[in-house]
Amino acid sequence: MTLLSPGEASFSVTAPVLVIGAGACGLTAALTLREAGRDVLVLERDASPSGSTALSSGMIPAAGTQRQAAAGVTDTPDLMAADIQGKAKDRADPAVTAAVTQVAGSTVDWLDSLPEVDLPLVTGFLYPGHSVERMHAPPNRTGEALMGMLLTAAGRMDIDIVTEAHVTALFAGEDGRVKGVRVTRPDGTVEDIGCDTLILACNGYGGNKTMVAEHIPEMAKADYFGHVGNQGDAVRWGVELGGEAKHMSAYQGHGSVAVPHGILITWALMMEGGIQVNAAGERFSNEHQGYSEQSVAVLAQPGKVAWDVFDDRIHKLGMEFDDYRNASDQRAVVHANSVEDLASRIGVDARKLAAAIAETHAVGTDRFGRDLSVNPGLDAPFYAVKVTGALFHTQGGLRIDGAARVLRSGTDDPLPNLYAGGGAACGVSGPEVSGYLSGNGLLTAVTLGRLAGLDVRKS
Q1: Does pTM top 0.85 for this prediction?
Q2: Domains observed in the chain
């Protein structure tokens, strides 16, 4: 049982607002509160905050930002919401979708205005499903850099972050009002901390093999590229308090993680004309459908692996990403001067590989539904990276309203003082992997953190 009676608590301290999780969601909520002079305490289970944010590419989609205006990009929240629903086949929660897209632009502008944060617009290519350039990311395009920026900003604003503080239980009354939490330290000591308001920002359940097998069985044996601390605690707490879990079968996968190196290879390589071939040297899918659902396609191949294949033009684009440069430094990137040379180096049939590369020079839509006309064909010299499919993070979670308040099961009434964001809340990807639009994870992390902070500020 993870819910305890308030009468069992011995609160050593009480915080007006308690945030569980010091990732992008929790830090955005805390920064929002401190901006208004509100006291907030952030609890983080790790010795150094990182979480799923640090493992991401650090890209936050937002519409109508100052960076877009400066680049001459016309975008609106309505267009962004349409793109989200288009990918999710109109199965994302409309109220939450509207809320996060309406606030995303102002949230990114606000974060970008902080002295410690730099979020330029990513230009030169579009991720699957986005109508315009709307990704904003640190210059080196890593989640680790984004975390560093947010933590530095939190330090300047004197936000209290207690690390190595693993929340193991909540104290709540029969009405669902949370009174505090129980924290367990690495040495086994226990501390009870009271609160007036609780914000759950501790991500989803991707690290819980039992829950993954139950809700997304196709990923039960896949590599997990997320944070091991994502054990589903927030969802269980919310449900026990009277909330409701929604779209638990939704998740973000990725079809391009270098093996055995475990390095994310940016999907920009595919969007700019790269292809994937299997161990036989044959293409097997539409690489432009989206990197999330491509995880399933790659895992269905012999050995659960594929090869990203591209040329020098695309290789140079990849070198703009820290992760790709890291992969290159670790010799995950194979270089060859001809098709025959590449086939020999990666161990595939040369004739089949030549046919796959020749397809890129065709005009029109191929047998997989990919429009080959939008990119130049691949030409020597060639490059390849051996990759597998992986689970990154779950997208299902607690049902919330447009202010990030956790709703009671079967109603639109919020629980008294409980908020959820990031992976703790049901996202905007609908109920399955194909509904994930690039950036949905960080989108709901920062916007729901912002919305929760703004709503708490009203009280």
Answers
A1: yes
A2: 3-249+395-457 (3.50.50.60), 252-391 (3.90.700.10)
